[in-house]
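Forwarding the complex inputs:
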Amino acid sequence: MHPDDNDLDEEIRGHFALSMKERLERGEDPASARLAALKEFGNVTLTRDAMRGVWRHRWLEWAEALGRDLRFAVRALLRAKGLAVTVMVTLALGIGANAAIFSVVRGVLLRPLVNRDEDRLIYIRQSAPAIGAENMTFSVPEVKDFMSRATTVRAFGDFSTVDFTLIGLGGEPRTVKAGVVGGSFFEVMGLRPVLGRLLDPHDDGPDAAGAAVLTYRFWTTSLNGDATVIGRKIRLGARTATVVGVLEPSVPYPAETEIIANVVTSPHHLGATMVTSRTHRMTELFGRLAPAATLEAARAELTAVHAGMMREHPDAYSKTANVQLRVARLRDQIAAPARTILIVLLAAAGVVFVIACSNVANLILARSVRREGELAVRAALGAGTAALRRTLLAESLVLCGGGAILGVLLARPLLVGVASFAGRYSVRALEVTVDGTVLWVGAGLAIAAAVLLAYVPRLPSPHAPAGLGLASGSLRITPGTNRRLRIFATTQVAFSFVLLAGAGMLIATLAAMQTAKTGYGNMRQVIAFDVPPVATGVATADGLTFFREATRRVSQLPGVQDVTVGTAVPWRDAGLFPGGTGFAVEGYKPADGEEDPRARLRVVGSRFFTVLGVPVLAGREFTDDDGPGVEPVSIVSQSVAQRMFANGDALNRHMWWTDPYFGKPVPRRIVGVVADVDDESVVPQTVMTIYMPVRQVKYGGRLFVRAAGDPHALVPAVIRTIRSISADQPIERAATLEDVRAEVLSPERLNAFVFSGFAGIALLIAVVGVAGVLAFSVSARTREFGIRLAVGSEPRRLLARVLGEGTTMAVIGIAAGAAGGYVLARAAAHLVEHVQMPDALPTVAASAVLVIAAVLASLVPAARAARVDVLQALRAE
Amino acid sequence: MPKTPNEHRLELLQGTLDMLILRTLQWGPQHGHGIGQAIRTQSDDLLRVETGSLYPALHRLVKRGWLTAEWGVSEANQRARYYQLTPAGKAQLSRERDRWAQLVDAIGRIMNPAPAGRE
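Prediction (whole assembly, two chains):
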């Protein structure tokens, strides 16, 4: 039934035979009869295609034709390897970057959590923005109020972090970060064990046996997934616990911990302060929505409950603190910090993709101009518009497909980089792996690019006289094509400028942070150790003896200049007492309704300021004599002296803490004034700070050693010394202040690095683009240049002319980029926080880099224009 | 390819080619060339079917089941495909004929409205 190609041919031949016979019978001569028959028939190929088309499914026929075109495209591109490689590499960069970043965005922002019914899980946070406390956490009485009053939340889970000294899972005694949870926590979170069991209501309360669950990460990385760990007894500081299970891999939030234990393991959690004080806040709160309750309903109810609590206990909620309650879905809460950075990265990758596409569009446009002759011949032979487009589409599909394959291969290493980068903002990024998404995104982008690119070139118009192009088959560049090429190149310059300026801004910020004066004189020589007091945060009398002995012995080590004790390593221990602590001074009375002033509270040992290199401006430092039983003393920073005392005269006056945490106020004589240092912010700010001596507050935990030579060389000796005093004492995280600062700055450094990477790729592509356009334009105008030279134009002027064209594109691009970037930044400021306009310096630097790049890119084509051989150029056509 | 204008020739109305083919085949099996010639002579050379339309149309009608095709030998001593009406094709022809009559009638009423009062 279905005729094959031979049948069709034979039927057409039969028609000709009849037609010829008829004409011959009419007396025409064979030659003219044949010509007339052919003319009457029209386009044989088209007719046969139409006949065949009747029997084919339309799409099938189209696909088959595309297959033919694809084979043709591959053959054609093999003859233009340079172009093919440039296009594929450019596209691969664009596709690879986008696929990698999209995978991370999907993994971090969009993928559901492993928790059962994770969309019913909420996270509740109390914050006091007015005093800079982003997360105040909750106290036990507050949690109890929520539990008893809320109806939209089926159950609450509480979680707080403490540091335990862990002994009994092999290795040396060490500090582990542990979560302490109530009995409902795991049920609320909807998590399962991979081994043993999790904690349940039987483990709750002060009379239960100590029980601990290991997190999956800790179990696999530190214990190599040892299954015999279940049932083992461990020591957690002062208490003991049994390992009852291993938790499934899940996102640790709000803090990554190594073990999660029940309340009974932490003496602090059972103490009166923890249980009864409404202001002793250290608990994170999670909830599971009641059936049929919506997030909005829960938010409304919990906010109302919270408002009621604040009315009932006005003393626990300072007015100026502006305490607020936030209720969010847990998944959104976890994703929030990474959202901005990921969206910015996605935008940057998108820009790179646009640049890559416009560059490829340029190359393809240039190629299609060279192919105009070929297309005209095909059109004359009966190829319709659709068929010509299909030919172009096939070629761009081959190019983009190749680019996509390369891009997906490239995406894997890129993804690893981006994930570890994003891991600083969201732990979920670390679980992101290369998966099918990358492939789909890569394929999607490639097809989008291919279709776009197929519609870039103009087809030979059916109405235009085809004769010229057909006859000469030569290169002919129309003003319209030239303008299009230039627009694409200018677009690339504009987008590159935006990225370069952004990268410049980040680098400038980083440079400002790195060169900022910290106020610490001995950043390089001082090495800090965490020597956490065993088990709890509070040093006992034994602890004091321990630190006195430790400083004595360490100071005798060869190579040690000086030793002191503190409670916080600058920057690393930032956020110890958020918002500062209220205090009062002799002779300064706050006006009615004014809050007490707040200062950072720091506890430091004797000679602390000498060791760290902070100048003492007046009075003295703490000494070993500032101990228990003698007059309470304090040291204030310069800003306290200047703001709280007339003429900055603070010496020998008294101050006291007004925070209820300290109980009855104890006046402390101010014995010294030291320079202001900021041990929290990366860019130093002036913050009022008040110091108290370690031996009077009985609070220590950090050892600072000033070395004569290389501080890192002292580490083994210091550790040996500490262990010789107490074998169970953890000592860890040795780092010089400079190391700590570098560590703190690493997110900024990474930001700058990643952005510079994008900007570098963009710049590279833009340079290729400008150079390509000029090279094409020069080769298309060989004749013009030949004529110019022949009539006496100097080669130098031709060189300057082409260079000028390149520079013009760059300047227009920069202007467009600056304008567009400004608008973009303004628009972005509405969507994400912390959008800054780049300063003049990065902007000017970015422009300079682009102009120089454009001039360099124009040099080669310009030189070629100046070296055109007059005779050959004129003979060429 | 530009077409030579021919004042006397009429353009085939859209959708009428199928009907003309079916009608031509009412007299018996015929090959493509013959069908084209028949339409031409019967219309006194006013209608001329483009070969590029005729053959695809024939194949379309075969595919729909209104015609069957068989190889035979033509007057030129060459193999040719002879087309023949099927019963379904006959039914289709009468349907199209009715539709055509209605169309002519309807258009005629609009172009030559009956003057009022004339009977």
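Chain A has five domains: 5-55, 60-115+338-476, 137-322, 480-518+737-877, 526-736.
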